[in-house]
Amino acid sequence: MLVFIIRRLMQAALVVAVMSVLVFVGIYMIGDPLAILVSPEATELDREAIARSLGLDRPMWEQYLAFVGSALQGDFGKSFVFGQPAIGLILERMPATLELALIATIMSVLIGVPLGLYAGLRHETVAARAIMAGSVLGFSLPNFWVGLMLIMVFAVQLGWLPASGRGPTVDVFGIQLSFLTLAGWKYLALPALTLGLSKCALIVRLARATAREVMLMDFVKFARAKGLSEKRVIGVHILKNIMVPITTVTGLELGTLIAFAVITETIFSWPGMGKLLIDSIVHLDRPVVVAYLIVVVLLLVLISLIVDILYSVLDPRVRLGDAK
Amino acid sequence: MTDATLPVAELAKTESPWKRIAAEFAESKLALFGLAVLVILLVAALVAPWLSPQDPYNLAGLDIMDARQPPGEISAEGLRFLLGSDGQGRDMLSAMLYGLRISLVVGVVSVVASLAIGAMAGMAAAYFGGKVDALIMRIVDIQLSFPAILVALILLAVLGNGMDKVIIALIAVQWAYFARSAHGAALVERNKEYIEAARCLGLGRSRMLLRHLLPNCMPPLIVIATINIARAITLEATLSFLGLGVPVTEPSLGMLISNGFDYLLSGVYWISLFPGVLLTLVIIAINLVGDQLRDVLNPRLKR
């Protein structure tokens, strides 16, 4: 287990290193941040002074080495736009994104698993077909368009929910959270629904497919033959086996959700790190873009590591040491 | 060679695989419906210049007085806006037909290109093995561990706007799916007897790969290609929505939806609603066809 974790962390370090070069070179090639940062009336001398203060006058490889040197000490440079440390800006906004992604995930599991289970166990019924048709719709609908339509219906036409922003938050150990108050939920509902919809459809399909497979297994027949109540057969024996793939997929999809939060946050003006990324791309704010990517890569690696460990806990047949 | 194989084929009395696939495909009414919708939309996109009431790219033909007219309203020139007009007085129906064209072109071109690149890379990795294999598949693994939207987003931030750049970004995002699938299929096929037979005949490498290995790796790739056209179209729409996709002058469906976002809060719903419905229709149709193709082409489900 320990060997496995160490190997994965080393792989992650390699990925982060390669990524940082690619991103740095890529970001370096686009536009001149000075053109945006310095007012057109500034003199040549001022421009040079600003370039020097941001380190933009040095050759690219030198900038990169300087970046790596300070990045290893946890310093990703200062945002050109905000003048604050980039990593601080990202971490400040991360809780909002993580909260949104986690709520969306929980919502999609709580809705998706029962529906998928039903569709799998009673796959001949009309309701099961309706659920499956709904799931096709769920993952076919373009994510951002769903968001717009939800705004149109619930914010504009009905006026029930706010169209943008995060609203009031509760401070828990220095982290701002929305889901603890009803007012916070009002702001959270539409973005979380938008983000979770396609995942929910995925979970429905997965739960259905697994349920149909598990249903035919010997241990289910045995449990029935033993005279267990249907409730126990489904609620314990089948559900437990469904949850193994569901956990894996949900965990791995969490990374996609965090990435997709970029869109949801843009639509609903949710003050998370995804919105910060889009703003930073528009403003050519290199340090923030690079810091965002590195944070997200670490997050993705962490998530997949946790999922793998969880998988081996849930399914005793899996041994991590053997994994290549 | 043909002389030797002919009698065998006659003996086995096998019908052509295309006929079998078509017959099995037609078993699902839903898939047929999806195919029909898809064909209709393809034709509509193809003949858009003749079908649409107005040329949406001809800015001179637009009247700002016609902006944001609700569906059914009549324009200054007596044209009826069946689905309303957008912020610049453009007929939505015409703009959507042209937008559908762009979305489909972006989707199909990027998928065909990434299919070609991915299939070659994956097959080469499986066929040559060793270091080539390790290198290619490691790149694929790393890329697939990133969410596609993020890779495309960063690429477009670097490359800039434009239809060609969107297509490049989509290829860069999608080739890995094909590479992985082709790799898997080729690993299985590589050890089969017909490849050994071909090798015994002393065929060249490119002939082996292209004429013998490739056709047998195609079924799973076709399924992925179908589904990925839908994914590519969605991704393009999403990127355009974020302002990183196609240029404003030639709006795709995603761009049209994005334009409507500005007016959504004032109750002007049709600019975002109708292009989105069309987009969804395209994607559902492709997904239905893809789902059925997956079942038909999956050897494990063969009866």
List keywords for this structure.
heterodimer; A: 324 residues; mainly alpha; B: 303 residues; 12 helices
What report would you give on this structure?
- The complex is a heterodimer of chains A (324) and B (303).
- Chain A has helices at 2-29, 33-37, 44-54, 60-71, 86-121, 126-140, 143-157, 182-215, 218-225, 230-268, 273-282, 286-314, and strands spanning 170-172, 175-177.
- Chain A is an all-alpha fold.
- In chain A, strands 1-2 form a two-stranded antiparallel ribbon.
- In chain A, strand 1 (170-172) and strand 2 (175-177) form a beta hairpin.
- In chain A, helix 5 (86-121) runs antiparallel to helix 10, helix 9 packs across helix 10 (230-268) and helix 10 (230-268) runs parallel beside helix 11.
- Chain A is globular and about 85 Å long.
- Chain A starts with a helix and ends in a 10-residue tail after the last helix.
- The mean pLDDT of chain A is 81.
- By secondary structure, chain B is mostly helical.
- In chain B, helix 10 packs parallel to helix 11.
- Chain B is built from twelve helices and no strands.
- Chain B is elongated and about 75 Å long.
- Chains A and B meet through helix 1, helix 6, helix 7, helix 10 and helix 11 of A and helix 7, helix 10, helix 11 and helix 12 of B.
Low-confidence stretches of chain A: none
Distance between the termini of chain A: 12 Å
The beta-strand count of chain B equals 0
Runs of chain B in which pLDDT lies below 50 for 5 or more consecutive residues are 1-6
Largest interface, by Cβ-Cβ below 8 angstroms: which chains and how many residues each? A-B, 43 and 38 residues
Biggest sheet, spatial arrangement of strands of chain A: 1-2
Estimated helix fraction of chain A: over 70%
Largest sheet of chain A: 2 strands, antiparallel
How many helices of chain A in DSSP terms? 12
Give average pLDDT of chain B, whole number.
Answer: 81
Task: Categorize the overall geometry of chain B.
Answer: elongated
How large is the share of residues in beta strands of chain B? under 5%
**Largest beta-sheet characterization of chain B:** none
Structural class of chain A: mainly alpha
* Number of continuous helical runs of chain B: 12
Counting DSSP E segments of at least 2 residues, the number of strands of chain A comes to 2
- Tell me what portion of residues of chain A adopts beta-strand conformation: under 5%
State the secondary-structure class of chain B. Answer: mainly alpha
The SSE string of chain B, one letter per element, is: HHHHHHHHHHHH
